[in-house]
Amino acid sequence: MQVPFLDLKAQYNSIKNEVNEAIQEVLDNTAYILGNSVKNFEKEFARAHDVKHCVGLSSGTDGNHLALWALGLKPGDEVIIPANTFIATAWGATLCGAKPVFVDCDPESYNIDPNKVEAAITSRTKAIVAVHLYGQPADMDPLREISKAKNIHLVEDCAQSHLAEYKGKKTGGLSEAASFSFYPGKNLGAYGEAGAICTNDDELADYFLKLREHGQSKKYYHQTYGHNYRMEGIQGAVLGVKLKYLSHWTEGRRNVAKKYREHLGNFDKIKLPTEMSYAKHVYHLYVIQVQPTLDVKKNSEVRDKLKDYLQEKGIATGLHYPVPLHLQECFRDLGYKEGDFPETEKLAFTGLSLPMFPELTDEQIKYVADSIKEFFLKN
Ligand SMILES: Cc1ncc(COP(=O)(O)O)c(C=O)c1O
């Protein structure tokens, strides 16, 4: 049996006519950049996330940059970022000339550990980026308390958390500004590069609109510095169609997670993801940890063997992320070393992302679970 990591073709086939029509409309209107398709999508996306404003962008990375740029981050400033995230979270800081300061993740949520944030704060700290990684919301209340007490900005990276909830509230409206990615493989994916930034702050929303379009509010009149971070019309059209199915697809992902738990919940060679009591997890990724022994290095070897074994059985898996940010070559000058963030390293060395997409069948899920059990019987 073949089990892909995700299946964008199956999803496209299920909405083909609607998507094709929406794209055709953009082609007919020649509204290739921004335009009505983007405007309508922004409105609907903001509504779906209970947030006042959504500004469509060219990528989630651009959203990470815009959030900190608009909040005035500059060279010499420091930004607190989880060590366990995709590198684009850190680009938000570096593109402002600011320095990323990494913090380890919580061993259960896999998100930034709020108890470790204060120790990373210095007089230069200007912002904290909460990433809702793998689709699980970060623990926002303690982060909000720290940000208030220390007068530090708090923003969200929601690239993996469309429709996820923290204490009943959607991610994307839980801080000053929240970036989203619509990279094709995301829970809500475009057919190219796309992203957005959301906020409840009217002034900030206005500023985002200017910054994404060369610092202008009227064509050729540039009040501030800016950039070209506009969303394309075709992406707005595709996203507008797909947004209507997002909650259905999200429930599909949650159902896949439930089934994995039914099959693997009592299997002690691996640790399954925990849905925190405050969270509605949207399972962008389903990351298990291989832990037959207490030795991370040994488990890492087992993880790699398991990955190869599953590959041979036709099951595609992923690593998120094999090299934690503090050990990336590009951040060598920051002076971190192996051992600095043990929980993040544990995920990098022993984590394995199983196939996760709403169209996975019960047979495929069972086959993945059985193959994992079979591997440990043989090894
Ligand atoms: C956590 C996180 N932040 C930021 C990004 C960047 O998004 P994009 O690829 O749309 O630039 C991604 C996705 O790739 C991500 O997973």
Summarize the structure.
This protein is of the alpha/beta class and 379 residues long. The chain has helices at residues 8-29, 36-48, 60-70, 88-94, 140-150, 202-211, 233-243, 246-264, 296-312, 342-350, 362-378; strands at residues 53-57, 78-82, 99-103, 125-131, 153-157, 165-166, 169-170, 177-181, 195-199, 216-218, 221-222, 270-271, 279-280, 286-290, 351-354.
Q: Spell the H/E element sequence.
A: HHEHEHEEHEEEEEHEEHHEEEHHEH
> Do you know the CATH architecture of the largest domain?
3-Layer(aba) Sandwich
> How far is it from the N-terminal to the C-terminal residue, by CA?
22 Å
Note the overall shape: globular
- Spatial ordering of strands, largest sheet: 1-9-8-5-4-2-3
The percent range for helix content is 25-40%
Number of strands: 15
Set down the secondary structure blueprint:
Blueprint: H1 8-29, H2 36-48, E1 53-57, H3 60-70, E2 78-82, H4 88-94, E3 99-103, E4 125-131, H5 140-150, E5 153-157, E6 165-166, E7 169-170, E8 177-181, E9 195-199, H6 202-211, E10 216-218, E11 221-222, H7 233-243, H8 246-264, E12 270-271, E13 279-280, E14 286-290, H9 296-312, H10 342-350, E15 351-354, H11 362-378
Parallel strand pairs: 2-3, 2-4, 4-5, 5-8
Antiparallel strand pairs: 1-9, 6-7, 6-13, 8-9, 10-11, 12-14, 14-15
Helix pairs in contact: 1-7, 2-7, 3-4, 8-11
